[in-house]
Amino acid sequence: MKKAIALLVVLLMAASLVFAGGRQQSSEGVTRGMGRKIVMGYSQIGAESEWRTACTNSVKAAAEDWNIDLRFSDAQQMQQNQLQAIRAFIQQKVDVIAFTPVVSTGWEAILQECKDAGIPTICVDRTIDGPNTLYNTYIGSDIKEEGRKAARWLIEYMNKIGRGSKNPVNVVELQGTVGSAAATDRQAGIMEILAKYPNYKVIKTQTGNFTRAEGKQVMEAFLKSDGNIIDVLFAHNDDMAIGAIQAIEEYGRKPGEDIIIVSFDAVKGAFDAMIAGKLNASIECNPLLGPQIMDAAVKILTNQPVEKWIPSEEGQYDQSNAAAAYPTRQY
Ligand code: AHR
């Protein structure tokens, strides 16, 4: 009997070692869809907004899920830091490099260096100027179309509430980071639609760098000069809209009523503001790009075909559907 128990103990110990070995294998072993574990360098631009935090979390979680060794670098909004990080990734001979370009120009040389080193590149969330042969794929939104959607939404809403034929409809704009595709293309999309409605006049436009604090500050300046005549605010992201809402309330006007506000991203803070009646609409820009990035990386490294543009899925929300959508929001 004693011998049988001893044998059982030995068997259980052996089984637990095999199990531990198995776990070890899955956390340190191979990347999903690959015969080995791959290394990805990721150059993120910073942590300027709720959206960006959600994007970073998505990238980190997906890398873990795919069992990819992620080398993550935060550029603090400086292209110079991104170039340095990418050069370091090249030296480390990573398998693939993903990056979100803080601005759209100045990438040709570094992307050529990646090519020369035989390292594929994935451009994430913001596009760059230049031919799409510079990188393997772009994963993200049609940013200009986001701008068009925002302006179309506004025109329809202003007509619905009977303010669309006011002449002039005075519009102010809080832009994102100067030179970023997210700012340039949203502005271009908005202007393309507004150009068809000559009574809509953009009376002020300035950057708030995608941050809540600067959104508030710049809106305060707009209000100081034109406070009583502003009809509409376009904010290139929800964070700046939320900052501006505070400024408008402090000034003594009602955000969402006196001043109609349309922004981008559709983060949870925007839903709170829409449900409170202070923000009118938010055009979604999906930050949960991590799984698409990892999937594309594996496809590229296993020589499977990958489209030059992998679009993210997006909707648009306003005060009519915000409360119903809120429980399903992940960021
Ligand atoms: O590039 C996407 C933009 O960058 C988001 O709209 C904004 O919130 C972010 O910081």
Contiguous low-pLDDT stretches (5 residues minimum) are 9-27
User: How many strands, which pairing sense, and closed or not: the largest β-sheet?
Assistant: 6 strands, parallel
Shape annotation: elongated
The termini sit apart by 59 Å
Q: Estimate percent helicity.
A: 40-55%
- Helical region count? 11
> Based on DSSP secondary structure assignment, what is the total number of beta strands?
12
Quote the beta fraction.
Answer: 15-25%
CATH C-level category of the largest domain: Alpha Beta
- Structural class by sheet pairing and helices: alpha/beta
* Rg from Cα: 24 Å
Give the domain tally: 2
Structure ligands:
alpha-L-arabinofuranose
What is the fold-level CATH name, i.e. the topology of the largest domain? Rossmann fold
